[in-house]
Structure formats: C-alpha cells, structure tokens
C-alpha cells in the first residue's frame, strides 16, 4: 500500500523544496513549475485520503467542498461588509443563520466564520470580558483591562482537559495564565459539576468569574462536558458560558448523540470547526452566539 508520506527527513524535504523558492528575475515557465510541484512538493504531503490514515481530524475535502473552494479562490471576495461584496456578505450571514437552525439554537442566535477554532475561542473570551466590563460601567474596547478596579480578581474557569487555545486566549487578552482556573473532571473526563460548583462558590468570594468554558469533545478523549448544569452555574454567578465545540459539536447532528449536548442553546457562545468532520478545506471555523447583538462587541 502507498505510504502516507515520503518519510524524508526535514533536511531532505527542505532540499527538495528549495527550487520552488528560487525567485528568478526571468520567472519560470508554468510547465517547469508544475513539474517541480509534482516531483518536489506533492510526495512530501500527507495522504489524508488513504484508508490507513487514522491520525487526528484531517481529511480529504469532499467534491462539493472543493467546488466552494474554487469559487472562493476564483472570485477572491472580501466579506467584511456589504459594500465589499453584497453576495459574499449576504451568503455568510444567511449561512450562519441556517447553521443556527440546523443545530437547534434559539431564534436570536447568530454565527460568523473564523480563521480557526483557536481564534474563535479567543474572540468568545473577548466577548465575555467585554460584557463583564459593560456591567461595571465602561467600554473594554476603549479602556482595556485598566478599566477594572482590580483586574487580578478576574477569572476564567475551564476543564483540566481543555484545549490549549483557552490558555492562549487569556494570554492574548492580557489576563495572564494566573486568571485561568482548571476545574476537576470525573472518571469519564467530563467536568465534575458537584466539585466545580463547590470550587466556584469558594473562588467567587474573592474573585470575579468572567467566563466558564465547557468543552464539547476534548481532543484527548472526546469527552463532552455537562453543558446544561454548567450553564446554570454560570448564570448563578453572572458569568459567560462558552462551549468549545471545535472538535465535537458536529456530533450533535447525530440523533443518538444529541442528548450529550443538552443545554447548548443556553451557552452564550459556541465554537465549531466544520473542517474536522464535514470534509471542507482547512481552515473553516464558526463562532455561534446566543444573542445576535453580541457580535456588535467585536466591531
């Protein structure tokens, strides 16, 4: 059976790719470039379509997805606003609303596409922090963390099995890793709600709980945290509930597994990566919010 990749060393791959990066003043004939790509690059790519490939979530894009990618590449549309591309902007808006209906979210929910699940998680935590600032009477976009009387009191809580992007997000938002508290998990690697509730009660005495991050499909075990009780816990403490469903939220669409995601309609935001199961090109990520107006905080 054909190997998944060439098995070459990094030095060998670098040597093979060097001619592709020889920026000649006279350029290169398209036939020569094509030959180099076929002989120097493609052999070193991973064959995600091979039946022997069973690592992580990568897959060969489906034919329909390739058609969409070809349209996107051929027309190179920006979708930041209506003036840039009426059709492109409206397509994204309508697709986001359609996905909200597909996942059974509330009528007020909305969605937008992001570059990656990591970035979507960061944006979700920004929305959480922005709302927390609003409740304290200032605009986070204008004043930053300095607007909080005691920024060191701000906390983000998540599972000890959460994706590294949550830690990355608190770094990027200026909260620092000290703001992150890891919640205990049970034997099935899901957040232990009873222990989490006791810990939150203890932390809330001297801290402000900005956000609780649940995971719908951890990358280590595929565990889905109990979203409904975590939504209740977040509401009790005025915290934002974000669900990182980048890896596993697609499985809500499987009827037998949908009960695992009960309470997702009560989450303030949800991250999902269609490229992990739906055979679309990487990167393709979605950020859902429960209230459409929440996206105004990103403007």
In words, what does this structure look like?
Helix 5 (117-134) crosses helix 7. The N and C termini lie far apart (51 Å). The protein has helices spanning 10-17, 30-41, 63-75, 86-102, 117-134, 140-143, 164-172, 193-203, 227-236, and strands spanning 110-114, 154-159, 180-183, 208-215, 240-244, 269-272, 285-289. The mean pLDDT is 94. Strand 4, helix 9 and strand 5 form a beta-alpha-beta unit. The chain has a seven-stranded mixed beta sheet, with helices on both faces. The radius of gyration is 22 Å and the shape is globular. The protein has nine helices and seven strands, in the order H-H-H-H-E-H-H-E-H-E-H-E-H-E-E-E. By secondary structure, it is an alpha/beta fold. The protein has two domains: 10-55, no CATH class; 73-298, 3-Layer(aba) Sandwich (Aspartate Aminotransferase, domain 2).
């Amino acid at each position: 059976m054909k190997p998944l990749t060439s098995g070459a060393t990094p030095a060998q791959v670098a040597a093979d790719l060097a001619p592709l990066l020889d920026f000649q003043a006279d350029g290169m004939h398209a036939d020569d470039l094509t030959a180099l790509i076929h002989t120097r690059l493609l052999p070193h790519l991973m064959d995600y379509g091979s039946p022997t490939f069973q690592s992580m979530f990568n897959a060969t894009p489906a034919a329909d997805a390739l058609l969409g990618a070809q349209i996107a590449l051929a027309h190179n549309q920006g979708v930041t606003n209506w003036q840039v591309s009426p059709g492109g902007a409206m397509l994204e808006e309508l697709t986001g609303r359609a996905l909200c209906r597909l996942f059974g979210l509330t009528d007020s929910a909305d969605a937008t596409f992001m570059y990656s699940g990591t970035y979507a998680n960061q944006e979700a935590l920004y929305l959480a922090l922005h709302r927390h600032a609003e409740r304290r009477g200032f605009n986070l976009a204008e004043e930053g963390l300095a607007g909080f009387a005691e920024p060191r009191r701000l906390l983000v809580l998540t599972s000890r099995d959460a994706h590294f992007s949550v830690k990355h997000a608190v770094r990027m938002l200026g909260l620092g890793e000290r703001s992150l508290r890891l919640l205990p998990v049970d034997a099935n690697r899901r957040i232990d709600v009873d222990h989490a509730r006791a810990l939150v009660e203890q932390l809330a005495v001297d801290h402000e709980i900005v956000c609780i991050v649940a995971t719908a499909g951890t990358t280590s075990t595929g565990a889905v945290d109990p979203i409904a009780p975590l939504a209740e816990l977040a509401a009790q403490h005025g915290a934002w509930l974000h669900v990182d469903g980048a890896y596993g939220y697609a499985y809500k669409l499987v009827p037998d597994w949908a009960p695992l995601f009960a309470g997702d309609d009560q989450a303030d935001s949800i991250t999902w990566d269609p490229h992990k199961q739906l055979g679309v090109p990487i990167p393709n990520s979605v950020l859902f919010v429960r209230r459409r107006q929440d996206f105004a905080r990103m403007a």
